[in-house]
Amino acid sequence: MDKLNDKNKHQNIRIKCIQFLKIISNQCNEQQLNKAFKSSINIFNDGNNDTNLRKGCAELLGAIAVNLNGKHFDDTFQCLINGLRDSDWSVQYSCVKSLVTLSKKWNEEQLDITFQCLIDGFQNINGYCCYTSRHLLEGIAMKLNETQIDFVFTCLNGLKDENECIRALCKESLETISTKLNDRQLDRVFSAFVHGFKDKYNWVREPCAESLGIIATKASEKQLEKVFDTLMSGLKDEYKSIRKSCAKSLEVISKKLNEKQLKKVVNVLMSGLKDEDKNIRESCAKSLEVISKKLNEKQLGKVVKVLISGLKDKDKNIRKSCAKSLGVISEKLNEKQLENAINTLTDGFKDKDNYVCISCAQSLGVISTNLTDKQLEGVFNALPKEQEFNYFFSYKKALEEISTKWNEKQSEKIFNALIFVSKHLINTDNNSSKDRLLVELLELISTKLNDKQLYLLVIHLLERAKTKCKWYVRDALTKISEDMWKRATICGLKENIQLKNENTLTNEETSNNRIWKTVNDTDIQLLVFGLMTFNPRIQLSRDDSNTHSDALNKLIRYCDEQAIEWKFPTHQSKWNIDRDIERPCLNNEIEEVPNDENAFKGCYTVVHEAARSGDLSKFKLVLQNHPDIDINDSCNEHRQTPLHLAINYQHWDIARYCIEQGAYIDIREGAVNSPILRTPFENIMELIIKHKNDENDKNDLDAMEMCKLILKQRTMYPMKRIEYAIDYVKDKLIDQNGVIKNIDEEDYETLLEEGATFLLGVSQKQLKETLIKNSVLYWAASRNVKSIDIENSIKKKFDKGWHPMPFLIFRIFLLFEICVRLKREGRMYEKGMKELQVQLTTYWDYITVEEFKHKCPELMDDWSYNVVHRLINLGPCNEMSLV
Predict the structure, then answer these.
(1) Residue limits of the Stalled ribosome sensor GCN1-like HEAT repeats region domain (predicted)?
(2) pLDDT tens-digit profile of 616-646?
């Protein structure tokens, strides 16, 4: 500040000081801003001859007034208004910029004052000039009302810079300003932009081309003709940026063009695909993509031929753009054109450029919604593995867009094609990722299907589940709602009766009734399998959509038979065709006993038994009937959660369900001091290593899939477990009357070790050995972290003797002790909890990576995906384990 106020200092030094003050103004306090304000306004008003100094002060005043939240605002405003009459144009321009910055906080009086200065400038009176007013108009046009805008047009009439000023008026937001204009004013705006398009400078012509495309939506027929001719002439401009802007604007106004104009545009754009400049060719291809929606059959045929030939262009961007355009216009193509487009895009998979291949896959995804079953099968067979994701993602997005408005014919066509290909893939294709994505598409459209289609879909998925079941098929069946199961079941019962009636008519002439009956009952048996496996809670009665009692009785009989085979409780025997079917329950469920700590002991046993036996429906049912059971708190005598049991017995569907329900991943099973303590992930790795030599082992493949799922599901260590461990130690130190117990040092250490082992997944013996062996520092410091300094520590360098595991265990134990102490003292300990959470996450991350990096290095990609995902979504507490 001293150098700024010192008039004897060189002017360049004072200017630099002003520039620095402007940069740091948003970090200065109010007292510092007041000093800077007084100095800058004094320098600006003292008639200093250095224009750069005055210009810098004008910009600094604007920045300070904003940061002072209105203080000195009026003084700054008046100073800048006076500055509009400065003798130097650059100072005037700086004052305009600062005024525009302050305009958000103007009151009505200040707006009126500024507007009067604006008008005076257009009239070159009272010391204001037209050049300054033009720039000021550009900045404050959005704040003017219709009366003020009308006055501006009146003042501009006949001025030498009339067209430049009108363009300045519309520069910031043409769409918004145009809503305030009447027809006469709009006509003048059109003329101003058409005039500007003839300017000798390309930087004037380019924004005029873009603006004409925006404002043409409000054009009259006469004005549109003028705009059209102007843009067409611009397609031949020497500057490629202008040709590109014209092509884009023609795309915008295409909806308003008549047939003759449209034909002319199409011809010009098609010839533009042969332009020597690749940007023009790309822009023309994109414009054809939009305009094609208005073309007649003959014009569309020409465009298709041009786009197909464009896929052979030497420039990769043109090939990419043409491939994309074929997908956009596919909805309007006839059968022959569609076949040609499919073949061309399929050939595009051989392109050397990956982005062209991606565009081909995405366009085929869009086109697939219009294909027959045979055509869709052809696309599937031609689809390279590396383009599967792009194709299916595009297909899925296209289905989502049209599913809200498709008619019955479209629905049937899409459903039949997908089912046809899905059935064919079961026997002919070993590509599991393609098969999985196809099942996801069927799952997507399932809510849009009619009853018959839904029934056929359910039967198809159940056939797959019984023969060659994959987790994604089970997942799709699990997501089918109760209402959809009910609809499919009722439809199946009706189909059964209908086929039986048809068979009765033909039975007079043939004796094939036995064959028919066997085939038909297979579908009923499949429905029973599905109901009892994935959704055993639907209710049916004879009155449901006129369900025939014979068919319902048959369903009940098969349910009873299946229940006996699976050793299920046979409550189904109570079903009555004259009333709703009772929902099945489990024989070993127990009645709730209020205030009894063992009230849910039997239920916990049932949960573990269901997980061990592999009965997913039973497992779900227990959890649904007993919401008080926490999937993470439910442990058996071996400290095994349902997730441990499901993995140990290789019931992957239950394991997946547990993880989806939030089961803890970083928790070890085993008795308290058992030598074998394993996490779910470690158990799976043991299974994989055991069967690693057998590449075709189904269990091994399923285990690998589960490993990938666990790696992708890793998150921060659960805060709930940390709170539980801290409360465990704290509560042990207080008696029943709330009085703190007198406890010796050894007992306190034991308590801390018990709590820490819960978090670390190690035995107390292992923990104590680690602490003593690797850190005498801990015992020497008497557990007071503040007293741990370099003088008391064992001199052991971190790069010579420290191993990550004991270091992390030692650090976590110290943090745990701090958190327990702070909780006992009733002090804030949130920061310590978050740091403990970070260190525990680091600890379990390290254990997980060490487990698989040598045994199954191919899992590193899935681990990397999780790391990137977690880094992108870092919360307030950064995961130091990842960084």
Answers:
(1) 209-345
(2) 888 888 787 777 677 776 777 677 888 888 8
Give the position of tokens 């995961």.
Answer: 879
Does the CA dihedral 557-563-564-568 come out positive or negative?
A: negative
Q: How confident is the model at residue 493 (pLDDT cuts 50, 70, 90)?
A: confident
User: What is the amino acid identity at position 250?
Assistant: L
Instruction: Report which of 713, 709, 782 is spatially closest to residue 748, judged by C-alpha positions.
Output: 782
Other CB atoms within a 10 A radius of the CB of residue 256 amount to 17
Residues 6+ apart with CB under 8 A from 528: 555, 558, 559, 562
Of the candidates 10, 111, 4, 11, the residue with the CA atom closest to the CA atom of residue 64 = 4
* C-alpha–C-alpha distance, residues 493 and 4, integer Å: 92
What DSSP string describes 567-596? T---GGGG--TTSPPPPP--TT-----TT-
Distant-in-sequence, close-in-space partners of 211: CB < 8 Å, separation ≥ 6: 167, 170, 174, 193
Phi, psi of 734 (to 5 degrees): -125, 135
CA pair distance 586, 752, nearest whole angstrom? 41
Whats the size of the chain, residue-wise? 883
Question: Which residue is it, tokens 């690998």?
Answer: 704
Provide mean pLDDT across the span 643-666.
86
Q: Which residues pair with 734 in a beta bridge?
A: 740
Q: How far apart are CA 435 and CA 378, in angstroms?
A: 15
Task: Tell me the C-alpha distance between 685 and 854, whole Å.
Answer: 11
**Sign of torsion over alpha carbons 124, 130, 132, 134:** positive
C-alpha to C-alpha distances, 870 to 483, 704, 714, 882, nearest whole angstrom: 37, 22, 9, 8
Q: pLDDT at residue 597 above 60?
A: no
CA dist., res. 261 & res. 243, Å (int):
18
Distance from the Cα of residue 643 to its chain's centroid: 29
How far apart (Å, rounded) are the C-alpha atoms in residues 387 and 356? 11
**One-letter amino acid of 217:** T
Is the CB of residue 811 less than 8 Å from the CB of residue 803?
no
The owner of tokens 């071996």 is: 638
Residue with tokens 């059964």: 496
Q: Is 810 in a helix, a strand, or coil? A: helix
The partner residues of 740 in beta bridges, in order of sequence, read 734
- Residue 726's Cβ-count burial label (10 Å; 0-12, 13-18, 19+) is buried
Token duo for residue 681: 């992930």
Are the beta carbons of 219 and 227 closer than 8 angstroms? yes
The closest alpha carbon to 61, from 82, 85, 46, 44, belongs to 44
Please state, in angstroms and rounded to a whole number, the distance separating the CA atoms of residues 478 and 560: 22
Model pLDDT, residue 789 = 39
- C-alpha–C-alpha distance, residues 547 and 552, integer Å: 7
- Structure-block tokens of residue 87: 């003798």
pLDDT tens digits for 7-45? 666 667 777 887 788 777 777 787 888 888 888 888 787
Which of 498, 524, 500 lies closest to 513, judged by CA? 500
Is the pLDDT score of 782 beyond 50? no
d(CA 334, CA 340): 10
Q: Indicate the burial class of 264 (C-beta count within 10 angstroms; 0-12, 13-18, 19 or more).
A: middle
Q: Residue 448 and residue 442: Cα distance in Å, rounded?
A: 10
d(CA 193, CA 144): 21
Nearest to 133 by CA among 152, 150, 148: 152
pTM for this structure? Answer: 0.44
What pLDDT, in 10s, does the model give residues 517-533?
Answer: 444 578 888 888 888 77
Give the separation between CA 133 and CA 121, rounded to whole angstroms. Answer: 5
